[in-house]
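Today's session is about reading a structure prediction critically. Students often jump straight to the picture, but the first step is always the sequence itself: look for stretches that repeat, for charged clusters, for runs of hydrophobic residues. Only then move on to the predicted structure, which in these notes is written as discrete structure tokens rather than atom positions. Here is the chain we will use throughout the hour.
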Amino acid sequence: MFEWMAWTLPVAVFFTCIVLMLVGMTVWELRSPTVERKGFLPIRTTRGDRLFIGLLSAAYVNLAFVAVSEKMIDWFGLAQEPSIWFSFVASMAVLALVMRKG
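Below is the predicted structure for this chain, in token form.
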């Protein structure tokens, strides 16, 4: 059923992190209900809103990296495509930024 998916270690780690974040946010919300606040995002958001926006942003960072990773070989004169771990780290940094300051 899932043969069409490229289940590499970075992909598995990425989705495992998403599941763990959802579980953690659920427990956090049950213990301490959230309050809306205004950060750098143009709307008032709750923790759940920021998680959703951050996860979407993280997915777009990963997709953008996959889109340009083949071109990076020519741009930077690399011997092979750069590791997907770079996009994983960048996407988690974007997610952390949105969760903290958004």
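Discussion point for the tutorial: The mean pLDDT is 86.
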